Task: structure prediction
Amino acid sequence: MNDRSAIFHPLTLVRAAGIIDGVSLLVLLCIAMPLKYWAGMPLAVTIVGTAHGGIFIVYLLAVVYAQVRLQWHVKWTLLSVLAGFVPAANFILERYFRKHSDRFPIRPIPKIWLVYAIVLFTFIDLFTQLPVMSTYAGSLGASAAVAGFVVGMYSLSNTFGNVFSGMMTDKYGAYPILSSGLLLSSASLLLYSAVDNVTGLVLLRFLHGFCSGLIVPAAFAYLANQTRSEKQGSRSAITGSFVGIAAIVGPAYSGIMASRTSVPFVFATVAVLGLALFAATLRYLKTHLDRTARDKRGRGKLRLNKGTVQAYAGAFFLMFSQGALAYLLPLHVERLGYSSRLSGTLMSMFGIVAVALFVLPTNRWFDKVPPLATLATGLGLMGVSQILIGHNSGMYALYAVLAMYGVGFALLFPSMNTLLIRSTASDHRGQAYGYFYALFSLGVVAGSSGIGLLPVSLERQFWATGLVLLACVLGLSLSAVRFRR
Result:
């Protein structure tokens, strides 16, 4: 190994970034904070804290890069991230990596990881919109009602994009749909800087939603067709982890960056990621995707069966719950007198729990347990959590309930994907995922708008959401019993 390659070796980057991050954390804790609290110099924490935050982000990027290039066990990624929060832990980990560097050789990047990155981009695109779109519409002169319409327009047109993508994926393969979706959705994100009125924003939201809707069915159909049947559950869990990461990172990134820059700037940075993935798709996936699709052209229409109906029910009611939670939780937190920041951290709690269950060895459950059982259990936990949120006012109790909600989400997401894959043929899987993600979008609209129309208290709206989910669990259980008979 020459000097240049040694310097840019992923493990070297993690070690170097970890040392710098560890030093900055010690400076923050041992110098800046005493200056603030004992010497009356709060500026010290502001300066050092900002620098430490930037260094920590660089460290996280190095860890992610190592995960991709080394493909080490996920425990090393988790330990590396946790070390960033514990004083001196980075130094201990760096010493271990230095002594055992031969255990971490660079491996070729599987092409499937690029498809995972595309999934991550698509959901980051979605989740960056959530905290800022209604206020951005208001800044252009939209009333509260029109701002709500602007927010919902994306999900509405997304359903059309999903269905169209599914049909075209079965007909032409994943490559042309993925590449065109990446290019068009990135171009849509860049167009936000040119919009200066509400009418233009509504039209752009329709275009953006449709173009983004092209990506997910093609990506998930490709992933499903490339995975062995006995690994469908755990692979679906890994895919779900990227959705969960986007749910954690997207809102936080857009909320912070939009307050310091502008909403169009935030969307432009996401567009840069999309264009980079578009270029990578042209370079690395064209031949591979064309080869996998060459002899698999969908013929006829997708036929519904018991498994697809159960998967579609899971998809709709999962996002029904998400839409209701996104609408009700901020109102509940505000009514309790907490800062609006608590809503964001509570949402992050369920995402963190879900991602942990997706990437830890617990994801093997999904290969061993029948998917309908984990689907019903997950949906039931989410329903109970909705009811408990409306009954709890303590901060720590709310965190515990959202953690339970995260467990439910983690059980539900891979299970419904596995059900859909096992109940469809590969040459119609694009259509299957097209309708599947169309129901995702419709579920969000039904959850946020439908529950909001009920003329009852917030507590009863939480109850209504929970009871709807539990009724779905009962229906799924009865259908399973009837099928066995």
